[in-house]
Amino acid sequence: LPASMYTEIQRERPDGGNILTHPDYIDGNPDLIKPKKLLNPVKASKSHQELHRELLMNHKRGLGVESKPELQRVLEHRRRDLLIKQKKEEEEAKKLQSPFEKELLKRHQRLDQLEKEQEKQEDQAPEFIKVKENLRRTSTVTGDEKTA
User: Fold this and answer.
1) What is the CA radius of gyration of the chain?
2) Which Pfam families does the protein's record reference (predicted)?
3) How do residues 103-136 score in pLDDT, each as one tens digit?
4) Per-residue pLDDT tens digits for 27-70
5) CA 8 to chain centre
């Protein structure tokens, strides 16, 4: 029931049928200051009133709160995903900004480059040189074992 109908029903009821008790100060001394009901700051705000009005209009039309156009939902989903990706990238960038971690990264890259260069040099050598190196290694190992 709307508030206006509720107040009309309360007025029409006789005092005996009223559930709520009336305060004593209404009939009392006219010199007393009568208390006023405090305003709810949330309900008094413009944004709350506009939101409430919009919800009532949507309810009258039969629209649900979650019924947005599909295009708008997709666009909002994309925006959210983009923001999440940007935040992750920023966090990763912050992690790598410390000078110690930068130096570690540089050294790691240098070691990787050196390993790649060594592999290339080994791959470019003819096969008979590789076999000869392997033979030398085995002959020195067996020669050392014999002397010991």
Assistant:
1) 42
2) DUF1151 (PF06625)
3) 888 999 999 999 999 888 877 777 777 778 778 7
4) 667 778 888 888 888 888 898 999 899 888 888 887 766 667 77
5) 49
CA–CA dist 145, 148 (Å, integer): 5
> Half-sphere exposure of residue 79, counting CA atoms within 13 Å on the CB side?
6
Q: Which two structure tokens, joined as six digits, stand for 84?
A: 């999440």
User: Is the four-CA dihedral 119, 125, 130, 133 of positive or negative sign?
Assistant: negative
Q: How far is CA 61 from CA 50, 67, 137, in A?
A: 17, 12, 89
The C-alpha atoms of residue 90 and residue 83 are separated, in whole angstroms, by 11
CA 93/CA 84 separation, integer angstroms = 14
DSSP 25: G
The Cα 143–Cα 137 span in angstroms is 10
